[in-house]
Amino acid sequence: MARIDSFLKLGMQQGCSDVHLAVGVPPMLRMHGDLLPIKFRDLRSAELEGYIAEILTRSLAEQFSAGRDLDFSYVSADGGRFRVNVYRKETGVGATFRSIPSEVPTLEKLALPPIVTKLCDFHQGLILVTGSTGTGKSTSLAAMIDHLNSTRRLNIVSLEDPIEFVHRSKQSQVIQRELHTHIPSFAEGVRAAMREDPDVILVGELRDAETISMAMTAAETGHLVFGTLHTTGAVKTIDRIIDALPMEEREQTKSFLAQSLLAVVTQVLVKTADARGRRAICEIMVMTKAIAKLIQSDQTHQIPSQLQTGRDLGMQLLDQSLLAAINAREIDPDDAYAYASNKNLFQRYVTDTSMLPKLDASGAPAPSVASATSATPG
């Protein structure tokens, strides 16, 4: 058994999402969003390098020696599965282990909005799940793929970096391919998948213009395509795609989005009301003729108003979703306040008043130190 497995076992027993190992500090666990140290000495450089070396294949060891960061999946002696990132920093090496549940969660268990299940009924188009790193995008996509796998007879090709949840074919056939292990790039993976008679293609990340272009081609040619972007809302997602491609393709890209983009699901993870876990809270945009017109006329800044009034179509702003979850006593209002866009709507729910803006004697927000300093005559 690799020595690092002892830390991973402890993390699994505590129910943490991540285990962090870095030189100069003790091992740390990510518990419900907070990073907590375990009772252990500060890790030394040679010690941690030895721990990591025990779990690297020869190929990974050569890549790390050549100065590359590593992304790979690892199964511990106890059967726990982890997504691993190994890197170097100023004081030495470091590693992050993201725990992956052995069972793929269902859409019902994740308590995602009903519209997410309905989106899986489409046969063609592009569905994007977006959010910052660590907001559960991969978990939500895995649940959507599992729903398709359980309810429809399809050929599903999943391109991942690395493979996280392992899907066993049920009603469908699920083919999982890993970046740098089975495919050289996501773009090449999509190009190859289109020759493999797919019904559904999942692209782990639309990280460059070539991958975005290939995903668009797949969606236009009769496939249901899922993908992720590190964007924090529908408007930013659409703008990112348009800006990522060459200027001469701008009008073509807007036309594609208007015709083939089915939905954008943006999520954050917010602490539950009992502080024993986190749940996904979503902003959802579903393509309509009105939104398509806004995209084609460069008026994406007006899309939020469409989300706000589109509840009957399953759409919602993040703030609307947060407020609904607070009123249902499903999430911690203080944590919700941190994620809210219009924080004024949430102030009356906050229990930790230190989070609220400080007011001066007149009731106006007190100026910050920086603004007060800049206003001082020279």
Compact overview of the structure:
This protein is an alpha/beta fold and 378 residues long. Helices cover 35% and strands 22% of the residues.
Structure description:
There is one protein chain. The strands form 2 sheets. A 7-stranded mixed β-sheet has the order 9-8-10-11-7-12-13, sandwiched between helices. The model is unreliable at 368-378 (pLDDT under 50). Strand 4 and strand 5 form a beta hairpin. The protein contains 15 helices and 13 strands. Helix 9 crosses helix 10. It is globular, with a radius of gyration of 23 Å. With 378 residues, it is α/β, with parallel strands linked by helices. The chain has helices at 5-14, 45-53, 58-65, 107-110, 114-119, 137-151, 186-193, 209-220, 234-244, 250-260, 289-296, 303-308, 318-327, 333-339, 369-375, and strands at 18-22, 28-31, 34-37, 70-75, 81-89, 92-100, 125-130, 155-160, 173-178, 200-203, 224-229, 261-271, 278-286. The relative contact order is 0.09. The longest helix has 15 residues, at 137-151.
Helix content: 25-40%
Outline type: globular
Which percent band covers the strand fraction?
15-25%
- Give, in spatial order, the strands making up the sheet with the most strands: 9-8-10-11-7-12-13
> Averaged pLDDT, please?
93
The main sheet comes to: 7 strands, mixed
**Span between N and C termini?**
66 Å
Order of helices and strands: HEEEHHEEEHHEHEEHEHEHHEEHHHHH
Uncertain regions spanning at least 5 consecutive residues: 368-378
Rg calculated over all Cα atoms = 23 Å
Alpha plus pi helix count? 15
